[in-house]
Design a protein that fits this description.
This protein is of the alpha+beta class. The protein has one domain. It has 1 helix and 5 strands, in the order E-E-E-E-E-H. The chain has a 5-stranded antiparallel β-sheet, with no helix packed on it. The two termini are 25 Å apart.
C-alpha cells in the first residue's frame, strides 16, 4: 500500500471486504483528502482545503470510473494550457 494513504475505517462483511476509508498522510499541507472505496470500485472523494473543517472549504465527488476521470482531467489540463499558455505555473508538467 502507498505511504500516501492510511486506512481510517473499514467494513468487512461475511462475503468479504465491502468498503474501506482512506485518509491522506498529510503530504500536501494545504489540502486534506479522504476517500471511501467500495468493493465495486466506486470512490467517494472528499477534499478539504486550508486543512480545516469548514464545509465551505470542502469538495466532494463520486467516481465510478477513476481512469476515465483521470483521462478527462488530463484532457482539460491540455485544453487550459492551449488557451492560457505557459505563463500559468499551475499547468506545468
Amino acid at each position: 500500500m502507498s505511504d500516501d494513504w492510511k486506512i481510517a475505517e473499514k467494513d468487512w462483511r461475511e462475503e468479504g471486504p465491502y468498503w474501506v476509508r482512506f485518509t491522506d498522510t498529510g503530504s500536501i499541507k494545504t489540502c486534506h483528502w479522504e476517500a471511501t472505496v467500495k468493493w465495486d470500485g466506486c470512490i467517494e472523494l472528499i477534499t478539504r482545503y486550508n486543512a480545516g473543517d469548514d464545509p465551505e472549504d470542502a469538495g466532494q465527488i463520486h467516481l465510478c470510473d477513476l481512469d476515465q476521470m483521470i483521462a478527462r482531467l488530463q484532457s482539460l489540463k491540455a485544453a487550459a494550457k492551449a488557451v492560457l499558455g505557459p505563463r500559468h505555473g499551475l499547468y506545468e508538467d
